[in-house]
Amino acid sequence: MSKILVTGAAGFVGFHLVQRLLERGHEVVGLDNVNDYYAVSLKEDRLRILEPLPGFRFVRASLADRPVMEALFATEHFDMVANMAAQAGVRYSLENPHAYIDSNVVGFLNILEGCRHNKVTHLVYASSSSVYGANTTVPFSEHHSAAHPVSLYAATKKSNELMAHTYAHLYDLPVTGLRFFTVYGPWGRPDMAYFSFTKAILEGRSIDVFNHGRMRRDFTYVDDIIEGVVRVLDHVPCHNPSWNAGIPDPATSAAPYRVYNIGNNRPVELGRFIEVLEECIGKKALKNFLPMQPGDVLATSADVADLADAVGFRPDTSIETGIARFVDWYRGYYLTSN
Predict the structure, then answer these.
(1) What are phi and psi of 307, to 5 degrees?
(2) Which residues on neighbouring strands pair with residue 288, listed in sequence order?
(3) Is the pTM of this model over 0.85?
(4) Cα separations in angstroms, 91 against 63, 194, 195
(5) Is residue 88 a contact partner of residue 189, using CB atoms and an 8 Å limit?
C-alpha cells in the first residue's frame, strides 16, 4: 500500500483520516505542530490513540519550517500527501492574521515544493466553503466564481487553490482541493459553535446565537468528510482536454487539477441545529441573540454532483444522527474520562 503524509494529524479531520488510512493498510506519517489555538490536551489525547497504531509515525513540526519540511520529504519518499493542516477559524483571522499567512500560505508552499521535488503522485488538500465569500448563488458550485472572499481565512484557502493550480500547470503535479462545509462530530474542534454550545448548555450558561439563528449551514458529519477524502485520494486528476481557456471553468483545468465540494447538500438553519442539540442533551439552551459577525456569510449549501460523479459518493448523515453521536462522545470524554 501507499505511504501517505497526513498533515494536521493531531487535528480534528486529520485524526479521523489517519485512522481510516491505517485501517486500509497504508503506511502513514502524521505531522502537526500541536499549537495552542485550542486545548492542547485534546490534541495530545488524539495522538495517544494514534501513536500505538501499527503503520503510524508522528512528526511534531510546523509546515512553515522550511528546512524540516524539505528534509521530511527527501527522506520519506511519500506516494501521496493529504494536507489537512491549517490555521482554522474565520473570527480568529480578524485577531491574528499573521498566523494564517504562516500556516496556510507559507506552509502550503512548503507542501507544494516537497511534492514537486519528490515525485508525489497526488496531493489532496483541504480548502473551505468559505472561499465562496460574497457569492449568494446557492447551492455553491465549483463552477461558480469564488473570487470575493470576505475573511482572511477564506482568502488564504482560495490562495491554496490558486497555488495548487500553478504547480499543476508548471510541474504536472496532480492536485485536488476539497472544499469542506462546516464539519462536525466526535473529537471536534472546541472553537466550533456546536462544541461551545454543548458545553454551555450542560453548564447552564447562555449561548451567543449570531444573526438570531437564521444563518443556514451545510453541516457535514466528519465520517462523510473522511469517506470523501479517501475516495478522492484514490482518484488522481487528469488533464481535461475539453477545458476552454476562452471560457475558463474554475473547477477543472488543462492541468491535472480539480476542486470538489464536500458538504451534506441539505443546509440547516442554525436555530434548528440548536433544537436538535437541545433534544440530544435533554436540556434547553439560554440564547443570547446577536447580529451577524464580520466575516460570516448568511448561508452555505454544497452542490456535490461533481463529487458524486467522480467517486460515487455524496455525504448523507443527518444532523439528528450526527449530533447524537457527538453528544455521546462529549459526555464520555468530558463528563466521564476527564
Answers:
(1) -60, -45
(2) 208
(3) yes
(4) 22, 15, 16
(5) yes
Residue-wise pLDDT for 140-149, tens only, equals 999 998 999 9
Judge contact between 37 and 62, C-beta under 8 A. no
* Angle value at C-alpha 311, between 256 and 32, nearest 5 degrees: 70
Supply the angle between the helices 40-50 and 12-23 in degrees, to the nearest 10.
0
SS3 at position 299: strand
Cα–Cα–Cα angle for 253, 254, 260, rounded to 5 degrees = 25
Q: Before 139, cis peptide (omega within 30)? A: yes
DSSP 52-83: TSTTEEEEE--TT-HHHHHHHHHHH--SEEEE
Residue reference for cell 489555538: 37
Give which of 245, 255, 240 is closest to 306, Cα–Cα.
240
Task: Classify residue 254 as exposed, middle or buried by CB count within 10 Å of its CB (0-12, 13-18, 19+).
Answer: middle
* Radius of gyration from C-alpha coordinates of the chain: 19
Sign for the pseudo-dihedral over CA of 27, 314, 309, 162? negative
Enumerate the active-site residues.
153
**Which residues, 6 or more positions from 313, have their beta carbon under 8 angstroms from its beta carbon?**
227, 228, 231, 307
Task: Compute the distance between CA of residue 141 and CA of residue 145 in angstroms, rounded to an integer.
Answer: 9
pLDDT digits (tens, 9 = 90+) for 211-269: 888 888 999 999 999 999 999 999 999 999 999 999 999 999 999 999 999 999 899 99
- Kindly state the cell numbers that stand for 165: 493550480
**Alpha-carbon distance values, 286 to 12, 199, 201 (Å):** 27, 12, 7
CA distance 35 to 335: 24
* Apex 250 CA angle, 248 and 254, nearest 5: 65
Write the Ramachandran bin of 249: left for phi over 0, alpha for psi from -120 to 50, otherwise beta: beta
Lookup: cell for 245: 481557456
